[in-house]
Write a structure and sequence with these properties.
Helices cover about 30% and strands about 35% of the residues. The chain has six helices and 14 strands. Strands 3, 4, 11, 12, 13 and 14 form a six-stranded antiparallel β-sheet that branches. It has a five-stranded antiparallel β-sheet with strand order 5-7-8-9-10, with helices on both faces. It has a three-stranded parallel β-sheet with strand order 1-2-6, covered by helices on one side.
Length: about 260
């Protein structure tokens, strides 16, 4: 299954990946038949497995080959901004930590502020990983900047983004997206990444004047660090990324803006 840089390559890739996911896989059938026959001929079960299991492995390899999506890009039609995105993602890869901010809420009372190190916002984040590999089913002749979070994937292609998660594959052009970058201060209660700037400190349980609340014997000092924050929104997409290296995430934001994302 292959194509050459169509008018809407991200849409084309999304369609082909959906078709690939819908293809029937024969190796589970081969494995089931092998086990059923092996049980039926118990005395010769080892012989059946000796033949059936290698055959099942071969069928699985053929299934994988059939499921591959091959896309060829015309170098003359790949926008220069995409090369900027690839270079920026290499910088993001070199940074120590990347997170997806999964949930946020404002601190609304003094008790919350006191017991959460004086923070004005509470959030839950998930560790993310970046690379240039693209979807495992895809064979492409350009790097595909990728961000992975558990079962969620974000891929950056020459003309737009592709998202995979929850059994769905969605594509959006860059012009449909909006991005906002900011340098933020965060109270860090985990290990501080080595590429992060420490800009201050606070206490786990803090008084209104910023000092430690000495009623808590396990109170400890926490660093306040500077992180980069990139918010990307659009139809069916609302993502907030946090990166330990501010400059790396800023470079990605600028590359996305040059690719057509609205700032």
């Amino acid at each position: 299954m292959s194509s050459t840089f169509p008018a809407e390559p991200a849409d084309d890739v999304a369609l082909r990946l959906r078709q690939s996911a819908a293809r029937w896989r024969w190796w589970p059938v081969a494995l089931l038949v092998t086990e059923v026959v092996s049980l039926a001929f118990m005395e010769r079960g080892l012989l059946v497995n000796a033949v059936g299991l290698p055959a099942t492995l071969l069928i699985e390899l053929l299934d994988r080959r059939r499921a591959k999506v091959t896309v060829h890009y015309d170098p003359q039609r790949v926008p220069p901004a995409f090369h900027e995105i690839v270079d920026a993602m290499r910088g993001v890869q070199r940074a120590q930590r990347l997170w997806l901010v999964a949930h946020e809420q404002a601190v609304t009372n003094d008790h919350q502020r006191k017991t959460n190190a004086g923070a004005s916002q509470l959030f839950r984040r998930e560790a993310a990983h970046s690379d240039l590999a693209g979807p495992k089913e895809l064979v492409a002749d350009v790097p595909v900047p990728t961000v992975r979070v558990k079962s969620f994937r974000l891929y950056l292609f020459p003309d737009g983004v592709l998202l995979q998660g929850g059994g769905q594959t969605l594509s959006l052009p860059y012009r449909a997206l909006q991005a906002v970058f900011a340098s933020t201060r965060t109270v860090e209660d985990e290990q501080v990444p080595s590429d992060t700037r420490i800009v201050g400190s606070t206490w786990l349980y803090v008084n209104k004047n910023g000092g430690p609340d000495r009623r808590f014997k396990d109170n400890r000092e926490l660093p306040i660090v500077e992180y980069g924050r990139l918010t990307v929104t659009g139809p069916d997409i609302d993502l907030v990324w946090q990166r330990s290296n501010v400059a790396a995430l800023r470079a990605l934001f600028m590359a996305l803006r040059d690719a057509g994302v609205r700032a």
